[in-house]
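Is this the right way to post structure tokens for a design question? Let me know if I should format differently. Anyway, here goes:
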């Protein structure tokens, strides 16, 4: 009696544009987040699985984008994947 794991995706296939730069990668991930309602972490993993891109290659692209790096870090902290980082209190006044 072995343990089996299956991945179920409720997201239909969508066509992706070729990724030639960090900007292209960010646009594809943003498209998944907006159209499919995915979180950024989920969108990156889905994109890599769908296109055959190595996670390490995606990580390199994410590190080159301050916006994506900040958003993914924030998601990871909220999901307790990373320890919460210190934040400055900012008021709207």
């Amino acid at each position: 009696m072995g343990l089996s794991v299956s991945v179920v995706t409720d997201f239909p296939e969508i066509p992706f544009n070729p990724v030639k730069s960090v900007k292209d990668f960010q646009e594809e991930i943003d498209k998944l987040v907006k159209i499919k309602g995915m979180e950024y972490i989920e969108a990156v993993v889905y994109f890599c699985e769908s296109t055959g891109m190595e996670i390490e290659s995606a990580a390199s692209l994410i590190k080159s984008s301050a916006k994506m790096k900040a958003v993914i870090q924030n998601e990871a902290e909220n999901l307790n994947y990373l320890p919460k980082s210190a934040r400055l209190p900012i008021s709207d006044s």
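Format looks fine. Someone answered above. Worth noting: DSSP finds four helices and no strands in the chain. Confidence is low (pLDDT under 50) at residues 1-8.
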